[in-house]
Amino acid sequence: MTINIFKEMTEALNQTQQQYQPKSTKILFVEEAVNLKTFFLPQKLQCFRAIKEAFSQVFGEFKDHEDFLQFFKASGCYVEYLCQDLINRLKLPMRQKVRTESI
User: Fold this and answer.
1) 44-63 as b/e, with b when 16 or more CB fall inside 10 Å?
2) pTM of the model
3) How many domains does the chain have?
4) Contact, 32 vs 86, CB < 8 A?
5) N or C: which end of the chain has fewer CB within 10 A?
């Protein structure tokens, strides 16, 4: 049952990622892995907040998160996960192993 939930969540994430994937990627940002706490809330990701803040300083403020995401996509930027599995609850040695194997 739990595996099915994670599989469904991963499939939903892939659909969401595809929505914001540009036709041609010019700049690729890599996030460690999918995280349950921020699964459908990219604005909660530390990486997202840092990138949005940097873009805001250069290009001006965005109306909302969706406005930023559309600009991000139109600029040819994309965020990919190094690990497609949920690893944030693994112990550090196993987490490092999974990250290394994902490269």
Assistant:
1) ebeebeebbeebeeeeeebe
2) 0.73
3) 1
4) no
5) N
